[in-house]
Structures are given as C-alpha cells and as structure tokens.
Amino acid sequence: MAFPYKKVLLIGATSGIGLEIAKRLAKEGIDVIAVGRRQSRLDEFVSKAADPGKAFGVAFDIAEIDKIPAFAQSITQAHPDLDCVILNAGIQYVMDFSKPHTVDVSKIQHEITVNYVSMVALTHAFVPFFQTNSTEKKESAIIYTTSGLITIPYPMVLNYCASKAALHSFILSVREQLGQNPDNQKINVVELVVPLVQTELHDGQPGWGPDFNPGMPVASFVDAAMAGLAAKTTTVAVGQAEALYAEFEAEKERRVGPQWAAIRKAFGKAQSFD
Ligand SMILES: NC(=O)c1ccc[n+]([C@@H]2O[C@H](COP(=O)([O-])OP(=O)(O)OC[C@H]3O[C@@H](n4cnc5c(N)ncnc54)[C@H](OP(=O)(O)O)[C@@H]3O)[C@@H](O)[C@H]2O)c1
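Above: query sequence and NAP SMILES. Below: predicted holo structure tokens.
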C-alpha cells in the first residue's frame, strides 16, 4: 500500500524519525517540504533526494508562535497542492524536581511551547487551507507525533510526558470537532504513537551514549509507521507503544464519541457553537 497523500509538509525533518520518513516519502515520489531549524541538514536532504525538484527545505523555528500564521500562508501560497502536514518536531528535557535548584523553569515553558503550543498553533494555521480542500472533495491529513509516554508518564522526563499527553488530548477533541462539521470531513486527523527509538532526542541525557541506547532502530520504526499510515489507520501505535496504547488509551478512544454524543443530547444548544 502506498502513502495516501501527494505533497507533505514535514515539520521536524532534519534528524531521527522525521528525516527517515522524509527520505522514504521522497523515494516513493511524494513531494516533501522539509522543515527544521538546521539549514545545512535541509540542504543535504534536498540535494540527496532522488528527484531534488520534488524536495524542498524551509528553515523555521516553530517556537516562534507569532510567526506561524505567516509561515503557513507562505507554504500554502507556494504549494497550493499541499495535502498533508506531519507535525513531528519535538524536544525532551530531563529534570529533577527533588533538586529544584537544578530545574530551569524556562525549559519547562520551552518544552511545552515546542511540543504542544506550536502544534496547536500550526493546526489553527493550516485548518482553513484544508477546509478549502475538503469542500472541493480533496482529502487531506494532519498527522501528529506523540509518544507511548502519553499512557504512563516517566518521571525523568515528566514535563515532556505532560506535553505529549496534552497533545494527545487535543488530537482526540480536534478530530471530533472537524468530524462533526460536514465541511471538514475530508480532513483526516492521525496520531503516530512512538515507542523509544534511537534518535538524537536522547543525546546528552544522563547515562545515554554509544554504549546505552535501548530504543528501536529508526529504520524498523519507520517501516511499521509507514505501513500504518499507508493503511490510513487513525492511530498508528508502534512497538512497545502499541501494547501500551491498547492497554491504557484504546478504551478511552472508543468511549469518548458516545460520551460526547450523550453530553450533546443532554445539553443541546449549550454544547453547540451555532
Ligand atoms: N526517539 C524517541 O524515543 C521518541 C519516543 C517517543 C516520541 N518521540 C517523538 O518523535 C518525534 C521526533 O523525534 P526524534 O526522536 O526523531 O528526535 P530528533 O532526532 O531529535 O528530531 C527532532 C526533530 O524536531 C525538530 N525540532 C525541534 N525543535 C524544533 C523547533 N523549535 N522548530 C522546528 N523544528 C524543531 C528538529 O529539527 P531542528 O533541530 O533542525 O530544528 C528535528 O528535526 C518528536 O515529536 C518526539 O517527541 C520520539
């Protein structure tokens, strides 16, 4: 099965999971607009792409929230055939609240900004464009990268876990909001739930290094992720994250729809934006 979209904006494409997905998509003949802060990595991706005419690099720091609307506008103007956005960028900080003097509060804010607020702002910026696609009966997708740590938080990276759990909650609700509106029904909201993977995310973390990197190899992870995305599965959970998701989250995903329907029925107009 092939990847279902033709032109992808991939945010967080300069290393690890994003770079590997970008290379696979480019190899499949899909246009890829790669985004990250490191220009040299973007240049390298474009120059090595099988067809450099179908690969693009745009340097952008998604933490600059106020610049996101202009960024989205410039992308959709330059690429009116865009039909998929993959929101994959992420950062992870180790922090220990038992030694509060070591905790840098600005890092808490930055991690929430990159992993959550920017994702929400990017959704807000791209939905109007995809709504136009949808009314023209063209299918589009917003694909978010979360983590197995949405299910069981891990204390060493506690704020990271909170940021990804927040993003997971947002994904469930935004999928419902878009799905409820007939104009948006061709916008697929997809969540990629990632297990521990060997990437730069863990560089510099205590105890991690060439002798200790227990995650899944990036290539094997991306094999499974691409298969799930090609099958148009709404939630693509891979490796250890698949079992965790099935145990802790799948039931919630099954129950929220009927729960929301019951609330709407009980409260009527009070639960509607009309
Ligand atoms: N590796 C794991 O074990 C694991 C587990 C669960 C979930 N995940 C998630 O998987 C996703 C990909 O991470 P990875 O493991 O592949 O790590 P990675 O190799 O460190 O890649 C992170 C990507 O995010 C981009 N990024 C970070 N901050 C950014 C910013 N302010 N603006 C724009 N781009 C930014 C980086 O690009 P620049 O540095 O060039 O900006 C890079 O392309 C993340 O959302 C991560 O949370 C990873």
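The two ends are 40 Å apart (CA to CA).
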